[in-house]
Amino acid sequence: MKKILFSCAVALSCLVTSWASAAEQVTVFAAASMKDVIEEAAKQFKEKDGIDVVASFAASSVLAKQVEAGAPASIFVSADLDWMDYLQERKLIEDESRVVIAGNALVIATQKDKADSDLEKLLGARFAMGDPSNVPAGKYGKAALEHLNIWGKIEGNAVFTENVRVALQYVSRDEVNAAIVYASDRAVTTDLVEAYRFPADSHKAILYPAALVKGANDEAKAFLAFLESDAGQAIIADKGFVKAAETGQ
Predict the structure, then answer these.
(1) Start-to-end Cα distance in the chain
(2) CATH code for 2-103+207-246?
(3) Interval 67-122: pLDDT, tens
(4) Can you list the pairs that 117-123 forms with residues at least 24 positions away whose Cβ atoms lie under 8 Å?
């Protein structure tokens, strides 16, 4: 009997430890373009507070739908306002925690030997961009091209991708002539150049809102606060984004 009781006590202790570990962990669902920021922030946060941060990166639309379906995220970082609004309307985030943590610019990336400042030449052959039906970067890209009155001319050359990182991979592998991506994504690639930057007034401001998902733990609140802090904003700037204070929000 003593052995059985001891075994049960050990099992219960392990279970409690497992629960405690899960409670202390922060799970971030973030837009693919925020990958470098979140990974570096997680590293520094771990060194500072000893708390683990795990992250899942994909298109904002995909992640928002996963949160809606009950995926165990504690923080959601979107690449546009629409998908944050989507979760807020469904009462799946803590409204008071919602904050813009960064901004970005839209550019065209291409191989160095294919760089051309002429927009129509750049997109006159196959080019990659996020799917405008659900990927924020694709929405911004289509809006910008419509604003510049060339979408109808080059639409047939577009290869739609699930997120900006995939679009970058296409042009890096020379499978397309160019890719419409965020400036921050182009900044981390050594084999591609920025051939064109879309005028800021050609599309809606590119903002990255972040918020706590309903039921988030105190550790998640601390990590979100870290992203807003001077240290977090320094990471954001270093990775090619615009600091929150500079977005005008």
Answers:
(1) 65
(2) 3.40.190.10
(3) 999 999 999 999 989 999 999 999 999 999 999 999 999 999 999 988 888 899 99
(4) 117/195, 117/196, 119/148, 119/150, 119/196, 120/150, 120/153, 120/154, 122/177, 122/178, 122/195, 122/196, 123/150, 123/154, 123/157, 123/177, 123/178
| pTM (2 d.p.) | 0.76
Q: Is the pLDDT of residue 24 over 60?
A: yes
Helix (H) or strand (E) holding 160: strand 158-161
In this predicted model, what pLDDT tens digit does every residue of 163-199 receive, in sequence order? 888 999 999 999 999 999 999 989 888 899 999 999 9
| Sign of the four-CA dihedral 86, 107, 157, 172 | negative
Secondary structure (3-state) at 208? strand
Is the domain defined by 106-197 classed in CATH 3.40.190.10? yes
For the chain, the structural domain boundaries read 2-103+207-246, 106-197
Quote the CA–CA distance of 76 and 84 in Å, as a whole number: 8
Tokens linked to 10: 């050990």
Domains 2-103+207-246 and 106-197 share a fold: yes
